[in-house]
């Protein structure tokens, strides 16, 4: 793979997930609910946000952008302005949980301009077969307990989104803005140890 592309590896994994899996399997979502007839998946896009630390408008680089969710009537906004974001991280060792938590912290410090849903998504590509998703979660929870900048109402807790996938979790946090609105993060850890070989 390294000889056939100059794409950074995390980007490559994300593109393969979006282009080869999510886009090609939209019908699974459509079968569950007709409001997802036009769901859209995009790898690596940009939106705008206000950084609450300096009140400046900045660019929000989103790893996986999902819109056209059939929520226009519910949220009172055009479909194009309502979206869900997923941030992705490679996990080669437990030290990579530092960057994973940095994404949670980022969620707490941003006031979004368009209608970003009150939950976020995070995806961890576990590339080391000697690390389980339980170990990753325990490490993240330990670091969240000691984190002074992230207000956590619920540490990562198992949340069965699909009966065939055990590595899904939910956590709950507060935005660091005046009303401290609560938001959830849905976490999915995928075992890529048999796919990724250095």
Largest sheet: 9 strands, mixed
User: What is the number of beta strands?
Assistant: 9
Q: Mean of the pLDDT scores?
A: 87
N- to C-terminal separation?
10 Å
Amount of helix: 25-40%
Along the chain, the helix and strand elements come as HHEEHEHEEEHEEE
Could you say which structural class the secondary elements and strand pairing correspond to? alpha/beta
Gyration radius, in Å: 17 Å
Shape type:
globular
Number of helices: 5
Low-confidence stretches: none
**Percentage beta strand:** 35-45%
Q: What is the number of independent domains?
A: 1
Description:
By secondary structure, the protein is an alpha/beta fold. It has one domain. It is 25% helix and 36% strand. It has five helices and nine strands, in the order ααββαβαβββαβββ. The protein has helices at residues 9-22, 26-32, 72-75, 97-108, 133-145, and strands spanning 40-51, 56-67, 82-91, 110-112, 115-116, 119-126, 151-158, 168-174, 182-191. Strands 1, 2, 3, 4, 5, 6, 7, 8 and 9 form a nine-stranded mixed β-sheet that branches. α4 crosses α5 (133-145). It is globular, with a radius of gyration of 17 Å. The relative contact order is 0.14.
């Amino acid at each position: 793979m390294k000889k056939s592309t100059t794409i950074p590896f995390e980007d490559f994994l994300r593109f393969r997930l979006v282009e080869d899996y999510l886009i090609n399997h939209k019908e699974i979502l459509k079968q569950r609910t007709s409001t997802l007839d036009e769901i859209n998946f995009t790898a690596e896009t940009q939106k705008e946000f206000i950084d609450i630390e300096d009140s400046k408008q900045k660019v929000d680089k989103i790893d996986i952008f999902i819109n056209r969710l059939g929520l226009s009537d519910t949220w009172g906004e055009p479909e194009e302005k309502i979206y869900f974001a997923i941030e992705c991280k490679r996990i080669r060792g437990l030290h990579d949980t530092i960057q994973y938590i940095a994404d949670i912290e980022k969620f707490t410090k941003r006031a979004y301009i368009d209608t970003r849903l009150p939950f976020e998504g995070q995806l961890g590509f576990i590339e080391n077969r000697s690390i389980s998703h339980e170990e990753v979660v325990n490490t993240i929870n330990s670091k969240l307990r000691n984190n002074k900048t992230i207000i956590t109402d619920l540490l990562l807790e198992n949340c069965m989104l699909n009966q065939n996938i055990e590595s899904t979790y939910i956590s709950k946090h507060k935005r660091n803005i005046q009303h401290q609105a609560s938001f959830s993060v849905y976490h999915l850890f995928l075992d890529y140890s048999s796919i990724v070989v250095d």
